[in-house]
């Protein structure tokens, strides 16, 4: 069965060119031209990934992402003319999985869509695997339910955040570069992923806080990457 992609974009030329490229890759594409219709589509249909513009009528892409994240972990790719780092960070922090600025190469959009769809598939497949529990300090990672706990408090993670924590907690004390983390997430690496990984790590640190000694769980090893120490 074809994977279904939702595009919420008020510029018909842009939405149609993305549809053309995605359809050629075998995706089934639905297009809406405002954020409210995008929200209704997500609530009434099953999609494998959503692509949102930021500046849209009715509901903008940021508000739309926030609303969808209340109930869904569907991968969200934001495409926007807003190229400031602050806009990218905001988009990722409110729940987007990826962010591309206009103008863009349609082939890059296809590559990002492929990567995020694969990532979400592997995340869902992981839910069905045999139970494995990984514990580091007072963090507990449950593979069967894809949930993270700090003591008895569950920490809500996106699929991307969970996969990063899973990689680090399953391999304590091992240093992973941004390239290795990106390849673990999607099987490939693009230069813009470097900043995306940094933002995801920062967001994870905010969510899990510090250990009983006041130290960050995720350590930065300058010039090399990131790790979680076992003690």
UniProtKB/TrEMBL annotation:
Response regulatory domain segment(s): 4-117
Pfam short name (any one): Trans_reg_C
InterPro entries for this protein: CheY-like_superfamily, OmpR/PhoB-type_DNA-bd, Sig_transdc_resp-reg_C-effctor, Sig_transdc_resp-reg_receiver, WalR-like, WH-like_DNA-bd_sf
Highest rank taxon of the organism: Bacteria
PROSITE patterns, A to Z: OMPR_PHOB, RESPONSE_REGULATORY
Keyword DNA-binding assigned: yes
Modified residues (4-aspartylphosphate): 53
DNA bind region: 131-230
Domain OmpR/PhoB-type, first and last residues per copy: 131-230
Keywords of the record: DNA-binding, Phosphoprotein, Transcription, Transcription regulation
PANTHER family per UniProt: REGULATOR OF RPOS, RESPONSE REGULATOR SAER
Function: May play the central regulatory role in sporulation. It may be an element of the effector pathway responsible for the activation of sporulation genes in response to nutritional stress. Spo0A may act in concert with spo0H (a sigma factor) to control the expression of some genes that are critical to the sporulation process.
Protein name per the record: Stage 0 sporulation protein A homolog
Protein's organism: Tepidibacter hydrothermalis
